[in-house]
Amino acid sequence: MMARVFIEGIPVDRVTMSETMEWIASRIAKRCQGSYMAVLNVAKLVKARHDNDLRKALLEADVVTADGMPLVWCSPLYGERIPERVSGFDIMVEMFRRGASEGWSFYLLGATEKVLRSTVDHICAQHPGIRIAGFQHGYFTSEEESKVVDDIRASGSDVLLLAFGTPKKEHFVRRWRAHLGVSIIHGVGGSFDVLAGVTRRAPKWMQRVGLEWLYRLAQEPRRMFPRYFVTNSLFIAMILTQLVRKVGRRSLG
């Protein structure tokens, strides 16, 4: 078991990217099945306070990494500092790099048909020889879901990359985790859109100082403003409350 800190009751593993990748490689080498790795950002943390299924999915994950600098910064208030940000997108890219050399096979699930095909083309161009065992767009009906799961299992993939939004991907994992037949299940959200060139990631310096949300807001102001205004406000309130509690305990001590 990795060392964890619980932020508002949600576990976050105190791991580096290197440690995360070694864990992934170990699970694949041992042919373990259903190892679920999740990432946590501010929006998901706030949502998990009111979505019981999402909260359970995070509690049941084998690994939860901090996908956002605010969680790294606030972690000492909850016990121990998280060593670094380990984002879902960066994990995915590192898996492609290592998987191409070690023969890992991947199944891609989610996004539109057009985005998905562009994503597969990009991955194959960037990582010659990589094994893409299968892919399926995310616009299937609930009646078709079990057939999709059967296809994933039949593909013999080592890694399932699940490009659904939150909490759809977490709910999917809870329903089908034991039936997918893959070693690693990794939720990547909108990462396929980035690989396909539909959206762009923030510059590295903005990621380092915790301003990736501002870059996304500039790209999609109408869609993202309500989300960020609400979630960021609630997160700040949570942190201030925790700070008051910590100061209060020190005063009593």
Spell out the blueprint of helices and strands.
Blueprint: E1 4-7, E2 10-13, H1 17-29, E3 35-40, H2 42-48, H3 52-60, E4 63-66, H4 69-74, H5 88-102, E5 105-110, H6 113-126, E6 131-136, H7 145-155, E7 159-163, H8 168-176, E8 184-187, H9 191-195, H10 204-208, H11 212-219, H12 221-252
Parallel strand pairs: 3-4, 3-8, 5-6, 5-7, 7-8
Antiparallel strand pairs: 1-2
Account of the 3D structure:
By secondary structure, the chain is α/β, with parallel strands linked by helices. The chain has one domain (4-213): Rossmann fold (3-Layer(aba) Sandwich). 53% of the residues lie in helices and 15% in strands. It is built from 12 helices and 8 strands. The protein has helices at 17-29, 42-48, 52-60, 69-74, 88-102, 113-126, 145-155, 168-176, 191-195, 204-208, 212-219, 221-252, and strands at 4-7, 10-13, 35-40, 63-66, 105-110, 131-136, 159-163, 184-187. The chain has a 6-stranded parallel beta sheet, with helices on both faces. Strand 7 (159-163), helix 8 and strand 8 form a beta-alpha-beta unit. Helix 3 crosses helix 8 and helix 11 runs antiparallel to helix 12 (221-252). The longest helix is centred in the last third of the chain and has 32 residues, at 221-252. The chain is globular, with a radius of gyration of 18 Å.
